[in-house]
């Protein structure tokens, strides 16, 4: 009986166990079917949604920086180029956990541990800070090689200026993000910038790029610019100007050279200058390009245009005579003086000896606005149109009624303000036979058409008169160039201050063209506030003109227009300058 009961109990237990087995098996099957159906649903029905969600967590769009266009001189010598660099950045929220490695990281970043720690702690609520901008790639690789959490690299470009301070005022510079700030870099910033591209990448949880997926948009590099500047001429002009400013302890100086046939600017130098590769920016006052921004009264350098106005009137000829006795002229309450009593002289001698009395008498014999009109026509007091940032237009008076003293002082360069570039353009008009051409800082494939502003005969007569300034008895024998005939004019101008004209502070100028036989280059030199006993244009600016013009003519391969025996004789016996 007992055995039978045991068998029944065992059967009952086996029945319960079998029931449990089937129940568990059924539950497992249901779970499996549920998982399988969910997988099928996710892979088939909801696949697109999951794909998007996954991509959001690992796929990113990254900017491809555009290469900034190259600025080069007319012979393709680089003046501004961009080179790849690496910027190191960090996520402070991740980096803060590795403070024990800050000393090593700071050393690699070329900073102090305290600065690094302070920067990270101050920005720990952010996800992005720069640790070091524009590192060289191999230095940045050392930083990234530490594999610190939250530290990453970013490819950017840095601008370099191979000519340095020599061409700084022309080319200008950019900020750390390669946005133009001065000069050509600013004037043509949009053209040089280009357009960044985009690419899709896969990033890991630490924000590191692990795979490039594909290109979204190509980066479009900026356009290259070829300037009219000849770097050989620029170096020469800068060197001679720097030497003169130091020699005469001057406050500043400018030189500009214009190709007469095309209107292209071959050289444009300023002192003091600055180094565009130095980002410390301690020399901000030196940033301006004085050739186009600073205005001054041009003094006797405009007398040739006064003479041109007289010749065009028909009242005067090149061989006409004018009485400058007794060496001064009283106009109203003002007495206008010459250096000496030149007596009765030809109109040519008004330029040769730089006679204020002669220029005044010529101007007063004309219609009151005749001289001012001629000045305007050759470009004085008018924008040159080169498109350079901050260009000044100067001051050219417009009057309904001119007082005699205003006409007289204007005739020898007081009462108006011009830039060095405007004066160079005006002399290029004389060199071109009376044609005024637009100036350009960009290399021209084809020169623009000019406009006749002086008759050819008048321009020729004035050019011949200007050559006498560098001959025996002229005021600028130091402006001569061996082998070439030079035409030009000196200027020595009292500086103007809030208290009026200063007795012992001057601008020394020389403006001219060469060679006279076929003028190729117009050149202007201005030395601001020379110190010492020598301050006249013929003493200070003329020698700079001579050396720069000599070099420019060689650079342009202009053949001499004077036989060697002629220029040897001309330079045989030095004479004192007036």
Shape: elongated
- Strand tally: 19
The tally of structural domains comes to 2
Q: Over the alpha carbons, how many angstroms does the gyration radius reach?
A: 39 Å
CATH architecture of the largest domain: 3-Layer(aba) Sandwich
Which ranges are low-confidence, i.e. pLDDT below 50, for 5 or more consecutive residues? 567-578
Give the CATH H-level superfamily of the largest domain: DD-peptidase/beta-lactamase superfamily
Largest sheet: 5 strands, mixed
Helix count, DSSP H or I runs of 4 or more residues: 20
What's the CATH topology name of the largest domain? Beta-lactamase
Q: Give the percentage of residues in beta strands.
A: 15-25%
Kindly name the structural category.
Answer: alpha+beta
Overall pLDDT level: 87
The CATH class label of the largest domain is Alpha Beta
Q: Helicity range of the residues?
A: 25-40%
Q: Note the gap between the termini.
A: 154 Å
Q: What's the SSE blueprint?
A:
Blueprint: H1 2-45, H2 47-58, E1 59-64, E2 71-72, E3 78-90, H3 92-95, H4 102-108, H5 113-122, E4 129-135, H6 137-144, E5 151-160, H7 168-171, H8 183-187, H9 189-193, E6 197-203, E7 209-217, E8 225-226, H10 231-247, E9 252-259, E10 265-271, H11 290-293, H12 303-313, E11 321-323, E12 328-331, E13 334-337, E14 344-346, H13 347-352, H14 356-364, H15 370-377, H16 404-411, H17 420-431, E15 435-436, E16 451-452, H18 456-467, E17 487-497, E18 500-514, E19 521-528, H19 537-555, H20 564-570
Parallel strand pairs: 2-8
Antiparallel strand pairs: 1-6, 2-3, 3-4, 3-5, 6-7, 9-10, 9-19, 11-14, 12-13, 15-16, 17-18, 18-19
Helix pairs in contact: 4-5, 10-19, 12-15, 12-18, 14-16
């Amino acid at each position: 009986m007992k055995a039978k009961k045991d068998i029944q109990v065992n059967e009952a237990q086996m029945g319960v166990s079998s029931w449990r087995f089937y129940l568990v098996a059924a539950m497992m099957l249901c779970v499996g079917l549920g998982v399988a159906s969910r997988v099928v649903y996710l892979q088939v029905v909801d696949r697109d949604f999951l794909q998007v969600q996954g991509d959001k967590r690992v796929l990113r769009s990254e900017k491809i920086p555009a290469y900034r266009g190259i600025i080069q001189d007319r012979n393709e010598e680089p003046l501004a180029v961009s080179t790849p660099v690496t910027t190191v950045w960090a996520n402070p929220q991740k980096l803060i956990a590795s403070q024990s490695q800050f000393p090593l990281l700071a050393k690699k970043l070329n900073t102090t541990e305290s600065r690094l720690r302070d920067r990270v702690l101050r920005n720990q609520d952010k996800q992005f800070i720069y640790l070091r901008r524009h590192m060289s790639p191999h230095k940045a690789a050392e930083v990234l090689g530490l594999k610190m959490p939250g530290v990453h690299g970013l490819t950017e470009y840095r601008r370099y200026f191979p000519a340095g301070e020599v061409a700084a005022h022309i080319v200008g510079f950019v900020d750390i993000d390669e946005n133009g700030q001065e000069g050509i870099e600013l004037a043509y910033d949009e053209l040089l910038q280009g357009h960044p591209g985009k690419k899709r990448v896969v990033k890991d949880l630490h924000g590191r790029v692990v795979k490039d997926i594909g290109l979204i948009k190509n980066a479009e590099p900026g356009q290259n610019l070829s300037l009219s500047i000849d770097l050989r001429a620029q170096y020469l002009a800068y060197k001679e100007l720097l030497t003169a400013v130091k020699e005469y302890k001057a406050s500043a100086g400018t030189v500009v050279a214009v190709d007469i046939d095309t209107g292209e600017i071959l050289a444009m130098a300023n002192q003091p200058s600055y180094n565009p590769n130095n980002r410390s920016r301690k020399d901000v006052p030196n940033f301006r390009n004085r050739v186009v921004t600073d205005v001054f009264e041009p003094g006797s350098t405009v007398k040739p245009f006064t003479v041109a106005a007289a010749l065009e009137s028909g009242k005067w000829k090149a061989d006409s005579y004018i009485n400058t006795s007794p060496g001064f002229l009283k106009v109203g309450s003002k007495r206008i003086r010459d250096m000496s009593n030149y007596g009765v002289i030809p109109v040519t001698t008004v330029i040769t000896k730089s006679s204020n009395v002669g220029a005044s008498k010529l101007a007063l014999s004309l219609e009151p606005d005749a001289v001012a009109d001629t000045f305007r026509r050759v470009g004085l007091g008018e924008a040159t149109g080169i498109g350079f940032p901050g260009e000044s237009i100067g001051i050219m008076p417009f009057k309904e009624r001119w007082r005699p003293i205003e006409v007289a002082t204007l005739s020898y360069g007081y009462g108006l303000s011009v830039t060095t570039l405007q004066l160079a353009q005006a002399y290029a008009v004389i060199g071109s036979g009376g044609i005024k051409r637009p100036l350009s800082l960009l290399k021209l494939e084809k020169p623009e058409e000019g406009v006749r502003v002086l008759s050819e005969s008048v321009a020729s007569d004035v050019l011949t008169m200007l050559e006498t300034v560098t001959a025996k008895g002229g005021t600028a024998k130091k402006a001569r160039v061996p082998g070439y005939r030079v035409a030009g004019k000196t200027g020595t101008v009292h500086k103007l201050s809030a208290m009026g004209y200063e007795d012992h502070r001057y601008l020394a100028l020389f403006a001219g063209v060469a060679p006279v036989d076929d003028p190729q280059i117009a050149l202007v030199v201005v030395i601001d506030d020379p110190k010492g006993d020598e301050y006249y244009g013929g003493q200070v600016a003329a020698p700079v003109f001579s050396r720069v013009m000599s070099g420019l003519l060689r650079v342009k391969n202009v053949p001499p227009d004077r036989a060697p025996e002629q220029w040897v004789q001309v330079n045989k016996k030095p004479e004192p300058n007036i």
